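Human: I'm a chemist; would you kindly supply sequence and structure tokens for a protein?

Assistant:
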Amino acid sequence: MTTFDGLLSRIRQQTQGFTKDQAALAELSAPMGASDTSFSVDPATVTSLSRGLAEVDDELIYVKNYDRTSGVVQVMGGLNGRGAEGTVAASHAQHALITADPKYPRARMREAVNDVLQALYPDLVVFETTEITNTALVYEYAMPADALDVWAVSDQTIGPSQVWMQGRFYRFNPTADTTAFPTGKSIQLFDSVVPGRSMLVKYIKAPSPLVNGSDDFATVTGLPERCVDLVMWGACARLIPALEAARLQQTSVESTERANLVPVSSATKTAQYFLAMYQQRLQDERRRMLEENPQTQFYGS
């Protein structure tokens, strides 16, 4: 089982290396409230911080200065320095780790993961089923709001055969009249089915985004656990190019002293590697998805 936090850890390790890139860390010596404009850091680690951005859990904070003896850190701009760069000011527990000037803030990694998940459709889809009871003289039935298309329809036969016959004539309506169908989605069924018998509709929807750090990847997204690495490669490909943008600053160390050691476009080439890994896994996963969910018959008009 992979959680959202576990996926972010894998992305951080892939983008920064397992041991080569050691971030400067500190830790809270006391709990921190969501509206605090100062916070206490273990004096033994407070010197790891510097004026600028610091990350506590998922929140980015602007640091103004600190006292070496007491470990008290002042927030730049008061409350304006809390929840920086689009993050949310939150409470943090004692001993929470603080990362000075994070290369890849967790907030940006979260966005990259969910951007990948949203872009997977229609190459990868999540399959769900809904059961409909056939009613005499009724040809159109409501569908769940998250339905994007219908994959297959089968109906329950009469007798002991236990066979569900594949439906042949149906049409998905994504713009149904909301007066009759509140979700705005419906399916029109034209096969001859005995009233009262069940019809099983297999439909597709897009993968769902991850929200909380404890969210289980497979449960929340609807994708198989094996897709964790696919999303990881995609997120890495989206994050790495940010390093190239930083190198374009003429005052940066990378653009001057280290230019010969780390030439321009190095980050771009690394991003291309991650993108190739992502595209290969996406192709493999789509082929497997179609093998596991054969679409034997389809009719639309």
Notes: The chain is about 25% helix and 20% strand. The chain has three domains: 1-21+103-124+210-301, 22-102, 126-205. Residues 126-205 form one domain.
